[in-house]
Request: fold
Amino acid sequence: MKAAQQDSSHQKLVEKQSKNLIARISSKDSKIIIKNALDFSIKMHEGQKRKSGLPYVSHCIEVANILLDWNMDYTTIVSALLHDVVEDTDVSLKDIEREFGSDVAFLVDGVTKIDHIAFRSQEHKQAENFIKLFISLAKDLRVIIIKFADRLHNMETIEYLSSKKRKEIALETKEIFVPLAHRLGMANLKWKFEDLSLKCLNLKSYNNIKKKIEGSSKSNKKILESTIAPIRKELDSYKIESEISGRYKSISSINRKIELRNKKFEDIYDLYAIRIVVDKIEECYLALGVIHSIYPPVQDRFKDFIATPKTNGYQSVHTTVVTKDSKLTEVQIRTKEMDYTAEVGVAAHWLYKEGSKISSLDEKVPWLRDLLAMMSGDNADAEEMIELLKIDMFEDEIFIFTPKGDLIKLPVDSTPLDFAFAIHSELGFSCVRAKVNKKLVPLSYKLNNGDIVELETSKKQRPNSGWLSFVKTSRASHAIGKYLRKIEEEESRKIGLQLLEKNLRKLKLYEKFNDIKKKYSDIGYKNFNELLSDIGRGGLTVKDVVSKMFPDIKTSQEKVSYDKEFIDSARSDFEGINLDGVNNLVVDYGKCCNPIPGDNVIGYISRGRGLIVHRLSCSNLSSLSESDERIVSVNWDTKKNISFKAKIHMTCIDSAGVLNEIADIISKNKVNILDVKTDVTEGGIANIWIICKIESLPQLELIIKSISQLKKVDSVERVHS
Reply:
């Protein structure tokens, strides 16, 4: 009986929701299409329930309502009603296309693909999906706008999920959907996402701020009313029609102010703002003059985002004034159109209003064009893209001028190098110095609003990893990182080619070189250069290549460790050990210290093994014999070869360019690299082993000292085992 009553109640709820939704549709033709989609969704989702126990279709209806609030077109509304039918029912995309058209099918497919992406995953396939997602967004932004509405309703009803699931979804919302909403100029949505995420991730802080806002709302309401009253009176005298309102800033923005400034709620002065909405742009500036005639403005707190809109399209005039009760209060002045745009962002300029294209994508979301350009290369990285989305989220912009007066918008704390890359990547790559307001400054200099920047370039200039430590903009950091990765890749290919040729000769299999050059795909590589790079980085040995491509060929595959192989190879280059002028002795080497050519060594005459060679620094040497008679002077036989092989082990941070920097130091010391091996831990620590040909111990010590001075290198040592 209880279940039947519940079903009846749920049916009435869906009927009420459906009726209210259809009532909001003005166009008769659109009303018919949406009604068909609604009935289809109800039928397909029949019997399905959410965690709350409510019918699943009620969620689809609420998503459609949110999109109507944003004034989206009816194709988007239909897609919202159907956005889960392919995922959760037996309906196919072909069924959707047949019933509701190709546009709806495309949007439903796009939303479904977003649901399959694990945004925080490090897996390569997920990275590729993320990049594909943004490419699809470039085709139709309605995909992400539907997903925004879907995510908003899910966040508003998230209390029915487990604690773990709530935090996972909230974190994803904070790290992905908040930056996207910000970039698309959807301020109201961004605030809602932030507040709802904070509620899940830090309920204590959320409730504390909410309680204090509610506790002070009455007194602050009176203050706001007394502040607004003279403004309204004066605007009326000028016959300027206006809508004036005062509001608290969002809970999340207040929480951010408390954390960043390390202050209590009571010590934050800019907790609320006054908004004035007028009809015309010229009235914005007239209203500004009126406000400044009533309340004195705070110097350096005036910002004109009408003359110079923000990158996400936001327009408004901001000023901070001192009210009669000595409170600092921000006032925002904008037109009705600007106000609507500030709330719903790109949706306010929708490209597909009733089927007609009214504006270009580049015009409304130019940053997406830049992001897609960054993704176009072979080195596109999804995790990097996510970080780029988050850059400058809460920073104001500054306005910098070229000597000719052209305006360049940059984030706060940007540098002349950011300025150079904002104009053109090649200008950034070749920039050697800058003048700010005709004064010479370093490339890391932090620019200020209104600065005039001149750049000097050189064809010999090349980016270095140090640039990444001070550039601010995503365009600059991406371009520099991409360049460094390219250089490192070229160096890896060069080393890989040398190792391949050398080791094939050593294995007496050089005739297989051309076969390997042609058959790289047989072992999973896209091209020959990719194979060489992997060999150069140490990810693959030449013996691995031969055994995989030519399994029938034996490559003396006795199971010799990499370390033992090196020791045997290092010793084989020498004649052996000299003892008082006697050559070619049958000797053994101490397993405790593993002496190798280049070490200072000493001999010990054992009763059972003959002459045993130890490093002079061996800790076991003093305990080998009570008598010094068994200790003899020996040295490496260098008649034919005065150079020796040395193996160096380095631990460092796994980042672009580090291997190139190490290889560059070795090369500058005129030393040949014979072999490279790398291994990266899950914690992002890279182990690098390099075998090279050394002329003397001082030369080796100099190389080790130089490598140890690299910022990214934690440790470096010569290896004996």
Residues 203-237 form the longest helix (35 residues). The two ends are 78 Å apart (CA to CA). Residues 574-636 form one domain.
